[in-house]
Amino acid sequence: MRVLIIGGTGLISHAITRRMIAQGGFDITHYNRGQRARKYDAPVRTITGDRYDYPAFAAQMRDLQDAGSGFDVVIEMIGYKPADIESLREAFAGRVGQVVFCSTVDVYSKPPARYPVPNDADQSHPADWDYAQNKAACEALLRAAHQRGDFPVTILRPAHTYDDHGALLHSFIAGTAYLDRIRRGLPIITHGDGESLWVSCHADDVATAFVNACDNDKTFGRGYALPGHEWRTWNDVHRTVAKAIVAPPPRLVHIPTDLLARLSERANVCRINFRYNNIFETAEARADLGFDPQITFAEGTKRVYDTLDAAGKIASAESDPEWDVILRLWEKHTDAMLAERKTP
């Protein structure tokens, strides 16, 4: 099967490529700027170009197909805006057997109408969440292309995805200083009461669904969420990380989500996403894609920590001073409230 992965070097793309090589039967091509080299156990062709130079991209793809070097399946990993999808349609309409689009569970409305969130749930978002709005608009264009008969479309929606090299999340989105705080027993800021449910999945497990979607007509015209199978509160996320790396139980400091988002732009993601339960329906993904995550969050966390620690890539807590700035402000604020409350 001839597969083009647009992107090819990112976290999920890399896992997809390795999975295809291990499984066999795939002729793999990457399309990217050629700025990041990856090593594989089998040949992978790379076509160099700028995905966002739309005329040049379309011309490159048409030339390949006209020369008999077309593709059975195109996996779009770096389509973020509607214009990217219009470019995809121009390049491949009537010329490819299937388009697999990497979307996100963030397209679903928050809060949703019910849990677990079904695959066909409503999609609407805060006006300031451009990423989610644009991904939803991309999906709408792809569904229209599928209905017109431009090409069969499969939409896959990963939740938070990480690999052995990182991307563990917390109330300030990312940054490895979090791991240093955990291992040293320093206070961990947690949005709200820390009881909203979160879900993560290792890239190796997500990749299986992408590979199994290729040339799978059961998935044509459909969309699937790809979360992990363990829903944890944020409090439990931090406790699991600490236990996995043999650190003391974390000292959690809970700050109201709306206030935290005003104190730190980095924490705005808590206001628009993390404060809500992220629980998604997966029965259809299991049935049609064989999606059955095997790597537990505890195991994945240990792998991340060990990989980063061995490479000296865990930043010190002192390198990210915003944590302690906000902790001091919160302590001062709460002390003042308590003092005023006690004043006759």
Give a summary of the structure in a few sentences.
The protein is 41% helix and 16% strand. With 344 residues, it is of the alpha/beta class.
Provide the fold topology:
Elements: E1 2-6, H1 11-23, E2 27-32, E3 45-48, H2 54-66, E4 73-76, H3 82-92, E5 98-102, H4 130-148, E6 153-158, E7 160-162, H5 177-184, E8 187-191, E9 197-198, E10 200-202, H6 203-213, E11 222-226, E12 232-233, H7 234-244, E13 251-255, H8 257-263, H9 268-274, H10 283-289, H11 297-310, H12 322-342
Parallel strand pairs: 1-2, 1-4, 2-3, 4-5, 5-6, 6-11, 7-10, 8-13
Antiparallel strand pairs: 9-12
Helix pairs in contact: 1-6, 2-3, 3-4, 7-11, 8-9
Would you mind describing this structure in some detail?
This protein has a seven-stranded parallel β-sheet with strand order 3-2-1-4-5-6-11, with helices on both faces. It has a two-stranded parallel ribbon with strand order 7-10. It has two domains: 189 residues, 3-Layer(aba) Sandwich (Rossmann fold); 118 residues, UDP-galactose 4-epimerase, domain 1 (Alpha-Beta Complex), CATH 3.90.25. 40% of the residues are buried. The N and C termini lie far apart (78 Å). It is 41% helix and 16% strand. Helix 7 crosses helix 11. It is α/β, with parallel strands linked by helices. It is built from twelve helices and 13 strands.
Largest sheet: 7 strands, parallel
Alpha-beta classification: alpha/beta
* Arithmetic mean pLDDT: 95
SSE topology string:
EHEEHEHEHEEHEEEHEEHEHHHHH
CATH topology of the largest domain: Rossmann fold
Give the number of domains: 2
Please identify the top-level CATH class of the largest domain.
Alpha Beta
Q: How are strands sequenced across the largest beta sheet?
A: 3-2-1-4-5-6-11
